[in-house]
Amino acid sequence: MGVVGRSERPAGAEASALGASSERSSGESLATHLIGELIGLLAHDLRNPLSALHSNLGYLEAVLPSEEGDAREAVEDGVVSCDGLSHVIDNVDLLGQILRGGLSVSRTPSSAAALIAGAVERCQPAARSHGLKLELDPKSRQLHATVDVGRELAMKALMNLIRNGIQHAPPATTVHVSAALEGASVCVYVKDAGTALTDDLVESAFTAEGQVAGKSRSNSRYSRGMGLYCARVAARLCGADVSVVPSPKGNTFQLSLPRVDAL
């Protein structure tokens, strides 16, 4: 049977195929944008009752007498759960913004030490709730370096890495956060004593497919709220990147932030 060459294809059929392809592409783009809009609405609608719940728990925390230990502990657990859900909603909203093309990233020089310390502080309640310690290396607090990133996205990337460490660290252990100047980058390290990613999962853990498949694997470092996937998405959007550092024990994530001259 002979092979039909491109020049032998009727012009009308070629035009029709191109038109169909264009319509299909346009339809897929509209569908993707619509899904992004729906995800944005969902995130917004989830935030409203969550905000009210968080406020009411905050009020109870303020008025409960200190001797009501069990009640105060229950309220504190509720506040931490609200924070965790808020974190998941932020990740969902990030994906929605990407799908609808509505995310504008402004990169501005920021203090690396302040950015790192801020992310660690915001994750402290989650660590306490899991019975863990979350420690920032004292030298990292004094790091004199400026990074050129979208600050909120960089914070989101780092918090996702820290929360994954908290999620997978054994009870009564410590999640360590440190930073160092390495060439043109400020490298932030998040180390925990949990199961290390195996070589075959090092890259896939940061992908959407990897997070879906990893839900059923104990060594996948599945991350609540698509944490590892969103960590890489947020990092790359703001001019940074995430990776896994080989470690003889436990697991170590690295967030590489582009360094610039001091402010």
Q: What does this molecule look like?
A:
The chain is an alpha+beta fold and 263 residues long. The protein has 2 domains: 89 residues, no CATH class; 153 residues, Heat Shock Protein 90. α1 packs antiparallel against α2 and α3 packs parallel to α5. The radius of gyration is 23 Å and the shape is globular. The termini are far apart.
Please, what is the CATH homologous superfamily of the largest domain?
Answer: Histidine kinase-like ATPase, C-terminal domain
Regions with little confidence, pLDDT below 50 for 5+ residues: 1-24
Any idea what the CATH architecture of the largest domain is? 2-Layer Sandwich
Q: Order of helices and strands, N to C?
A: HHEHEHEHEEHHEE
The whole-angstrom Rg is 23 Å
Q: What is the top-level CATH class of the largest domain? A: Alpha Beta
Number of domains: 2
CATH names the topology of the largest domain as: Heat Shock Protein 90
- Measure the end-to-end span: 71 Å
Characterize the overall form.
globular
Average pLDDT taken over every residue: 85
Helicity level? 40-55%
Structural class: alpha+beta
